[in-house]
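Entry under discussion copied across for reference:
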Amino acid sequence: MALNTQSFTSLVQQQVAAIQAACSTALTFLVGSLELARVQAVAGVAMWLQSLVLQFLTATRLSTASGADVDSFVGDFGLIREAAIPATGEVTFARFSSSSTAYIPVGTQLSTSDGTQQFLVIADTTRAAFNASTDTYIVPACRATSMPTPSRCCRRRFPASTPSTMARPSPVASMPKAMRR
């Protein structure tokens, strides 16, 4: 997005035009006149404010940008942004009832307690609990305990990943990784 910046000369010209249009008598803006000095002082302050805004935008652009704007920003520094990849990890399923077998289908959607991150259970054929014919993880029934919390045998860890349509950098690495061209 191109910014509409003004030069010192254009600021002076625009002010002189606005003042002349609003005034019923002709004013003199000759070199050394009080009117010209005032207009130039205002233009100088406007240039200073414009430079502050540009410095602020430069400093904050990457943290608020997305998509092609991030690519163009890092491109200004000779860098290329690495594409986002789905986050992967393990999720623990637990239950209070240990009397029956639990089935966790691949594709089960999970979310963090605040709802900001979503994950899907993914297939991992190397896990003993994975049943390829039903595309589920099986948590077998186990010996019941009198504890009010999920018993140790009723907890299982399974792999999960962010859906590819929701792939985004992790919160720890919110700034995109970049590499030299």
